[in-house]
Write a structure and sequence with these properties.
single chain; 29 helices; about 55% helix; alpha+beta; five-stranded mixed sheet; 12 strands
Length: about 725
């Protein structure tokens, strides 16, 4: 725990100090990187010394049974679970499970295979291992090189001309600082991935045990069981028809922000569980014990999360909000202090990554996640030999019901039924034990009030985002009408005693916000591409994993447990190893000769200059961190830009249409790049810049022209 806390604090403090130093110094440089690294190391040492390696939740003794009613150790643990108290194996037994070391070994295989080859050199080519990572890694390389080039922070958007950078690029900023310290880009990517994988594996274990690690590695539904039909190991969940893809292959490898956000978010969840739900004695009084993390580390990890991963910050905030509603006054004060102290820095980082709040809202009512979107709406096609023959969902009540069942069962298998069973079990157990003593008890009216508020919010969002009602109707008319409908129902539950209290167990306190988070992600779109809501769904899934095990599966006999785990993780197991086996020779990303030659030329040109070029994900200018008028359209669209008219204007510029110089000035483009992609995609271009603009450099890779300088005598080829 100490090493995890120290490592995350090092990344956090170094990145934030680098950002602030880059803002003050108008860009990153070696001096800023050195000071940031020193500050990060100092903070890491303080975090190491201040972190409790064995928190009270794990050190509290077992409840001593009465001499007249002796109990076995398993019986005592079952009794404690039934009362909602924490059950943790002794430290001496914690790491002895063969199943633990088996899943850790598989995690290590995944990490070494995925990140040692995340970017590698093969002859004259730069290659990657995962086909999912072609576009994503190219974008991250653009950000890393752009930060490291010394541009003023917060930088202009390198993939769209009329914007500041709209991306939570904290982990890329960290890699850029390493580049400023003369660490090779490939080496920094490999070590960042490997060390982050170790941190994620350990954080998953501390939050969810062996089951938590397995749940992350092998998430899946039914698609992977096609192995018994085709007898081929491959990524069955990676096809376009399956939405619930492998979290390890499709998320961790491609979404670099998760390298930091996953271990940091899991550590914060572990901190809040240990802090607010320590193990209790038989008397039912909670122990007051020191939480694992010092407050300043907890604050730093939470307040800066928007810089690294916005969806993780949203998920953690939902959990905090529910804990605030549910816990007692003392806990509320601590949560209010954390939220209050984090408000200004978190707002600052959100302001940075949203182009100073100029990014428009993409919230939209979208029930069903992606069950009605394109190929995702036809999950049965993943099982067909001729996928085009699988019909789209039919209309009507029974057709919609059949499609609903197909989508969620094929994608998630028995995962969702287990979570529903867990929720029902917790509600029933909580109501049954309402009159028993417990460490934490809350009034039923507070839960009902929270449900009422959530219902009002959902109805209001539906009215505003989907039906287009005015703000007056949404804010003034809908809330009182909704409350009026719900009050009689709630009053019937409180007719005996409005002060009725119920026990708040650890599972109940975390499962409820996780379910709400999942429902929100399935009802409201939070990004231009609906599938990106998986960044919220992954947190709902990870939060409930330990409780699915402790409250349901672990109580069954071994044969039943084994069968359920195979049903849960079998598809994901096949998918993981099938995906790792793919791409044995890698996938080409860039030509090294071309990339190095372009890099040698643009290094002599202003880092802040913007170029006119063909928009593609692996353009050599982007891979060297230079700014284009328009980057890869898929990346531009996911950041919420309506780029259609600008794309058309760029085409007229690159085709040399009349007024091309005025178009270049409109885009603030200083240079024009004419290379392999431009020749292929603009074959009819008149290329007037060859006669009117200064030739900066030329070679086998192409040519660069200065659009603001007149033509001079031809230069000798370079590169």
């Amino acid at each position: 725990m100490k090493w995890l806390s120290a490592g995350l604090t090092f990344v956090n403090v170094m990145t934030v100090c680098g950002l602030l130093g880059g803002i003050a110094g108008h860009g990153l440089n070696k001096t800023v990187a050195i000071y940031s690294a020193v500050a990060g190391l100092a903070a890491a040492l303080l975090a190491y010394w201040g972190t409790c390696d064995a928190p009270a939740q794990e050190e509290a003794p077992e409840v001593t049974p009465s001499p007249t009613t002796p109990e076995s150790k398993p019986a005592r643990r079952r009794n404690r679970r039934d009362r909602g108290l924490a059950v943790v194996a002794p430290a001496s037994e914690r790491y002895r499970s063969i199943w633990l070391w088996l899943v850790v070994a598989i995690f290590a295989i995944f990490a070494f295979r995925s990140f040692c080859n995340v970017l590698f050199i093969d002859g004259n080519e730069l290659k990657i291992q995962s086909p999912n990572n072609l576009g994503d890694l190219s974008l991250h390389l653009t950000y890393i090189k752009n930060f490291a080039s010394g541009v003023a922070l917060w930088p202009d958007n390198p993939i769209y001309v009329f914007s500041k950078l709209r991306y939570p690029a904290g982990i890329d900023l960290f890699n850029a600082l390493l580049v400023c310290l003369d660490v090779d880009v490939i080496r920094s990517l490999v070590w960042a991935g490997l060390l982050a994988s170790a941190a994620i594996c350990y954080a998953l274990y501390r939050w969810g045990g062996t089951f938590g690690i397995a749940g992350f590695l092998f998430n899946g539904g039914l698609a992977g069981f096609q192995l018994f039909k085709s007898f081929q190991w491959k990524d069955y969940q990676g096809v376009n028809f399956i939405a619930w893809k492998s979290l390890a292959l499709a998320m961790l490898v491609t979404q670099r922000g998760l390298l930091y956000a996953l271990p940091a978010g899991l550590l914060l969840l572990y901190q809040w569980r240990a802090k607010f739900f320590p193990r209790a004695e038989a008397s039912g009084t909670a122990e007051s014990a020191r939480p694992p993390l010092p407050f300043w580390v907890e604050l730093a990890l939470y307040a800066t999360m928007p810089l690294f991963h916005v969806h993780t910050f949203m998920a953690l905030s939902v959990v905090l909000l529910f804990l605030f509603f549910f816990l007692n006054a003392r806990a509320r004060k601590q949560l209010a202090l954390l939220a209050g102290a984090a408000f200004l820095p978190a707002t600052f980082f959100v302001w940075l990554i949203t182009d100073h709040f100029h990014a428009g809202s993409v919230l939209h009512w979208n029930p069903g996640w992606v069950q009605n979107n394109g190929d995702f709406a036809r999950p049965l096609a993943a099982f067909a030999t001729q996928q085009g023959t699988v019909a789209a969902p039919v209309s009507g009540f029974f057709g919609a019901l059949n499609h609903f069942v197909q989508f969620w069962v094929i994608n998630f298998g028995i995962t969702l039924p287990l979570i529903i069973a867990l929720l029902v079990l917790l509600v029933m157990r909580t109501w049954k034990q309402r009159d028993e003593p417990a460490p934490v008890k809350i009034r039923l009216i507070s839960i009902l009030a929270t449900l009422a508020v959530l219902m009002v919010v959902l109805v209001s969002l539906f009215a505003y985002l989907s039906l287009g009602y005015s703000l007056f109707v949404v804010l003034v008319l809908i809330p009182p009408v909704t409350f009026a409908v719900m009050i009689p129902l709630f009053a019937s539950l409180l007719q005996r005693d409005w002060r009725q209290t119920i026990p708040l167990s650890t599972p109940f306190a975390f499962v409820i916000p996780a379910v709400v988070l999942f429902l929100f992600a399935c009802l409201v779109k939070t990004a231009p591409w609906e599938w990106d809501n998986i960044k919220l769904i992954i947190w709902a899934y990870l939060i409930v994993l330990p409780f699915v095990w402790s409250e349901i599966i672990s109580r069954w006999a071994f044969p039943v447990r084994a069968a359920v785990c195979v049903a849960l993780f079998g598809s994901g197991f096949v998918t993981l190893f099938g995906g790792l086996a793919a791409g044995k020779t890698g996938y080409g990303l860039a030509d090294r000769t071309e990339l190095d030659a372009v890099g040698a030329v643009v290094q002599k040109l202003p880092a802040e200059a913007r170029y006119a070029a063909f928009p593609t994900y692996n353009h050599p200018l982007l891979l060297q961190g230079r700014k284009l008028i328009l980057g890869y359209p898929g990346h531009v669209w996911t950041q919420g830009f309506e780029y259609g008219p600008d794309s058309a204007k760029l085409a007229t510029l690159m085709n040399g249409a009349p007024g091309w110089k005025e178009t270049a000035r409109f885009f603030r483009a200083r240079y024009l790049f004419w290379g392999r992609e431009e020749k292929t995609n603009y074959p009819l271009s008149k290329r007037p810049w060859e006669q009117e603009s200064k030739l900066i450099a030329t070679g086998a890779w192409g040519a660069i022209y200065d659009l603001e300088s007149p033509r001079e005598s031809p230069l000798k080829p370079q590169g």
